[in-house]
Every structure is written in structure tokens, then in C-alpha cells.
Design a protein that fits this description.
Elements lengths: L10 H24 L6 E4 L2 E4 H24 L4 H23 L2 H24 L11 H5 L2 E5 L4 H12 L3 E6 L2 H15 L3 E5 L7 H8 L5 E6 L14 H29 L2 E6 L12 H20 L5 E7 L7 H4 L10 H11 L5 E3 L2 H13 L2 H13 L5
Parallel strand pairs: 3-4, 3-6, 4-5, 6-7, 7-8, 8-9
Antiparallel strand pairs: 1-2
Helix pairs in contact: 1-2, 3-4, 6-7, 6-12, 8-9, 9-10
The structure holds NADP nicotinamide-adenine-dinucleotide phosphate.
The site of NADP nicotinamide-adenine-dinucleotide phosphate (NAP) has 29 residues, from helix 6 and helix 11.
């Protein structure tokens, strides 16, 4: 029956949770019941209230912090937009209050610093919409029994398989390393009690996507995760010609064909989901990862366009745009190791965003950096900056 996916709470939100718990159980009860009425003071929108008015206005504060504690703990959907709205009220209060009640230059400094600080938290809360636990049916009930995950033998694909199995989906696992797929299939059957099918396949080969589609033609594939992909750092001129062809086949041709082949039956059932694993590397041209970036721009674009094209058809499409993620990718791409987000987090965010929006840039930092860059810098300066970032990833 309906269950919910595991919430992922970033560290800063855990800080807010602890703060709300402190306010709910310690500070506001003390303020309400122990503090003398004559000394009581409350601030709303930057305006001070005293005495009985303050006592009365502590009640909505208490309710807000208690709701915030439960909301952050359970990652409730109703936290968006209300947590951000309350954050905006606090930000306004922190700007207005010093301007009204503090003298001299200190007032301006305090208003600016606290405005930036609380404004930043409010902005994070506004952007956190996909993190709040959706009250929704399981993916199996929403899209159909089977999910097909390409590149399931490691990294992001393996986590998609695990997360979708926890959603009750039976999983088709595809990649080249059959042993790894069989191991994962055993784990999913044991731990999530779902069915699995292993289809070992090299998606770089012409005709492989059609072969994969035939291998699952007897199943109701409700979710397609187009995840298999690779990159290769360094100037294009140094890439062997067959690697160029392989990258385009795997990163572009295979996902487009698999989507094309999966769509007719999804459309007939009027339900389904397709996830294209693109990349932040596809948002801005990336010298020294030029071909990889171009293939990921293809995935980002295809996913976002299909999201709109299929609006109202019952089929949800998401272009997932992860930044650096800790998988085998960096090693295979010949990059110097540089860490990144965990696959588990990337996948949890993606599944929360599916059906909610056309695309998701996994890390807020990447979203800010790219969007600020696109709006404020010339293309030339931006691409030169991206080149310097890519240079830092070249093997020493
Ligand atoms: N990690 C990052 O920093 C990052 C950032 C943005 C986007 N991405 C994207 O995320 C996706 C998953 O990558 P990952 O980070 O999870 O890397 P990964 O750990 O290297 O996983 C790549 C997966 O693709 C499969 N694969 C590679 N070549 C294949 C082929 N010819 N045929 C079939 N399957 C093939 C691999 O399995 P086999 O080797 O067993 O075939 C593996 O399961 C890729 O599309 C990548 O572009 C990654």
C-alpha cells in the first residue's frame, strides 16, 4: 500500500529542526509561563510588542516552531512554501528591528548582516521544495510494476534501482558487468521482495537499445531511467575516434531510442515516467570535457522538451542534472578524484522532483553558480571560467 520515500534532510535543515525543538520545548514555554508579564517582549515583522500583547503573540510563535519541528522531522510536504514564508517574515523583522530600535551605524550594519543571513536561509527553504516528503502513492502504484534502469551496475544507476525497489517496483537491471547486476538483483529480491530481470548489454553497440526494448517487451515498464553514460576528460583531439562514437551512442542515441521505444505503451496506459540523467556539465559548454558536455546538453534538453511535449499525457519526464557525484565516473573519465555528492542524495532528490518539474540541478551551489554566471558574465568569460574548473580535474 501507499508508503513514502525516505526523506533526505540537509545539515542546515537539521540545524533548523534542532532550533525549532529548542524553541518548542524550552524557550517559548519559559517565555510564556515563567517570564514576568512586565518584562515580556515579542517581535513580529520587526515591531516590538510588550506585556500582555507579547504573551498573546508568543502563542503563534509557539505554534510555528512546533509545526516547524514536526515538518522538518518528517519532511512534510506542507512545509513548502510555509517555512520559506515564515523565513521571509523573520528576515524582514531582522532588517526592520535594528533600523527602528538601534542607533547609528550599528543599525545599518546589523540590518545588512542579518538580512543577508536570514535571507539566505529563506532562499534555501524556498529552493528546498523537492526535499519535502511527498504524500503520494508508491511509484509502483503511480507508474506501473516495472522500472528499467540502464547503467545499474554502479553509482547513480545502482541507487536508482535500490530506491525504486523500495518503492515496490520490480527492476530490470542493465549494464555490461553481468556479475554486478546479478549481485544487485539478489540484494533487491532479498531486501525489497521485488522481482528483477538482468539484461547485460553494451549500449554503445548499434541496435543495442532495440535489443533491450525487445528483452522487456513482455513487461509493463512504467519507469525508464536513462542513466548509463560516461565522460572522458581532455582535449577532443586526444580522444580516439571510436571513443567519440561510443560516447555519442551511449549518452545520446541510446536514451533517445529507449524513450522512443518505451513511449507507445506508456501512452496507451496513460501513465509512466522517464528520467534522463543529464549533467550540470550540459548547462554551459565545458572545454576539456567538450564532447561529454555536449552529450549531456542533449540529455538535459531532450528531457526538458519531452516534459512539456508529454504534458497531460500521464507521463512524467525529468532531466536530472547532477554535479560532481561520488561514483566510478571520475575514475573512468580519467579525472583527478574530486569527491562530490552521494548517489543516494542525488537519487532521493530526483525521485522527489519527478512529476513536479522539468529538470533538477541536484546541488544548489551548482544552480547558483551557473545561473549567476549565465546572467552576469559574457559567454566568453563564463566558458573560460568553466575551462579553469575543468583544468583542475585533469590528472596530475
Ligand atoms: N558522477 C558524476 O559526477 C556525474 C555528474 C553528472 C552526471 N553524471 C551522469 O550520471 C550517469 C551515471 O554515471 P555514474 O556517475 O553513476 O558513473 P558510473 O559509476 O561510472 O556508472 C556508469 C554506469 O553506466 C554503465 N555503462 C557504461 N558504459 C556502458 C555501456 N557501453 N553500455 C551499458 N552500460 C554502460 C556502467 O556499467 P558497466 O560498466 O557495467 O557497463 C555503469 O553502471 C551518467 O550518465 C553520467 O554522465 C555523473
Amino acid at each position: 500500500m501507499a508508503t513514502e520515500s525516505r526523506p533526505i534532510r540537509p545539515w542546515w535543515m537539521t540545524g533548523l529542526l534542532v532550533f525549532c525543538a529548542f524553541m518548542t520545548f524550552v524557550y517559548v514555554p519559559w517565555d510564556l509561563f515563567l517570564k514576568p508579564v512586565a518584562r515580556d517582549e515579542e517581535v513580529w515583522f520587526g515591531f516590538r510588542f510588550h506585556g500582555h500583547a507579547a504573551k498573546l503573540l508568543a502563542l503563534p510563535h509557539w505554534a510555528v516552531y512546533a509545526a516547524g519541528m514536526v515538518g522538518f522531522l518528517r519532511m512534510r510536504r506542507w512545509m513548502w512554501p510555509w517555512a520559506a514564508v515564515y523565513g521571509a517574515q523573520v528576515t524582514l523583522a531582522m532588517v526592520v528591528w535594528p533600523l527602528l530600535y538601534v542607533d547609528g551605524a550599528k543599525a545599518i550594519a546589523s540590518a545588512v548582516v542579518s538580512g543577508l543571513l536570514f535571507g539566505g536561509v529563506t532562499w534555501l527553504l524556498w529552493r528546498a521544495r523537492p526535499l519535502f516528503r511527498p504524500e503520494r502513492p508508491r511509484f509502483r502504484d503511480r507508474y506501473g510494476e516495472w522500472a528499467l534502469v540502464t547503467g545499474a551496475s554502479s553509482g547513480i544507476g545502482r541507487e536508482f534501482a535500490r530506491a525504486l525497489a523500495r518503492e515496490g517496483c520490480s527492476i530490470v537491471l542493465s549494464a555490461r558487468r553481468e556479475e554486478r547486476l546479478r549481485e544487485l538483483a539478489g540484494e533487491l529480491e532479498r531486501e525489497s521482495a521485488v522481482r528483477t530481470r538482468v539484461v547485460p548489454l553494451d549500449l554503445e553497440r548499434a541496435g543495442a537499445a532495440e535489443e533491450l526494448a525487445r528483452a522487456v517487451s513482455d513487461l509493463e515498464v512504467g519507469i525508464l531511467v536513462n542513466n548509463a553514460g560516461f565522460g572522458s576528460i581532455g582535449p577532443l583531439v586526444n580522444q580516439p575516434a571510436e571513443r567519440v562514437r561510443a560516447m555519442v551512442e551511449l549518452n545520446c542515441t541510446a536514451p533517445a531510442l529507449l524513450a522512443r521505444l518505451a513511449l507507445p505503451s506508456m501512452l496507451a496506459r496513460r501513465r509512466g515516467a522517464i528520467i534522463f540523467v543529464g549533467s550540470v556539465a550540459g548547462m554551459v559548454p565545458m572545454p576539456l570535457h567538450a564532447l561529454y558536455g555536449a552529450t549531456k546538453a542533449f540529455d538535459n534538453s531532450l528531457g526538458e522538451a519531452l516534459h512539456e511535449e508529454l504534458r497531460g499525457s500521464g507521463i512524467d519526464v525529468l532531466a536530472l542534472e547532477p554535479g560532481s557525484t561520488e561514483t566510478e565516473f571520475q575514475m573512468r573519465a580519467g579525472e583527478a578524484p574530486h569527491g562530490g555528492e552521494s548517489s543516494e542524495r542525488v537519487v532521493a532528490k530526483a525521485l522527489a522532483a519527478l512529476g513536479e518539474r522539468p529538470s533538477l540541478v541536484s546541488r544548489s551551489f551548482d544552480w547558483i553558480a551557473v545561473n549567476v554566471g549565465l546572467r552576469l558574465l559574457s559567454r566568453e568569460t563564463l566558458i573560460a571560467g568553466v575551462r579553469r574548473a575543468a583544468e583542475r580535474r585533469l590528472p596530475k
